[in-house]
Amino acid sequence: MDGIINVYKEAGYTSHDVVARLRGILGQKKIGHTGTLDPEATGVLPVCCGKATKVCGLLADKDKSYRAVCRLGVTTDTQDMTGRILKESDFSGISFQEILDCIQGFQGDILQIPPMYSALKVNGRKLYELAREGKTVERKARPVRIQQLEVTEWDLEQGLFTMEVTCSKGTYIRTLCHDIGERLGCGAAMESLVRTRVALFTLEEALPLWKIEELVQSSPELLDQKMYSVDQLFPDHPRLRIREKYRSRLANGNPLSLDELEAISPQKEIRSGDRVLIYDEHCVFRAVYQKEGAKLRVYKMF
User: How far apart are alpha carbons 295 and 280 in whole angstroms?
Assistant: First the structure.
């Protein structure tokens, strides 16, 4: 199978577990996920199969949306409630307006220090491996972008509030909760996390593993219909078809000029640095090219 499946990751599974299960369900080895979710987190996990594994990195770069529950008055070593509690504080004096005012300071471009309990590597070792040995190492703050941050539910008697977050690649929602708690002066940790969107993949359309297995056994054609083709991931990219006489140049991955192509649909001007979708003479998707000067050069071949 070649394409992307929008998997609903259930709690208790690592992203690697999901890939391993899918390899067994689909009976193929070439499968990869597009961005790690913590084991207790749930929600959207796009999984690439076959030739579509070439876009794993591209999808990992896409913006993501989350629904996170933040618990005030507690600080943990993992920055979520799965970790060891380091400190508990009184949060009774925190008002809803203070929370709203606080989160305004986290919107836009910010710096985050990655948590020790993360898969980032320092000197060849994953941070969580060091953390489990009781070690703490210096981590550099990294730029991330928070496009949307909104409180949608709250129960301040229990010290809980829910945030809807849309953010860039590399953002740790656990760290966002922790940093909000630090700024409020009472500490905070992430209670739960649901990823609601990755690019065009939404929570409403995500399939749990049991449903995928059921479709494979009973209605494989329906599973085919629910898989996304690679070119569906780039709805805003110009779409060009190779002219018949130049088809071998595309087949060989040669640089192309615009006069060797024809537009499949009306499109905007293609500028240097723009990526375009290239189809063969039969309108079958074959490659992503990128414009460099007067030429289009291969970015990914499929």
Answer: 18
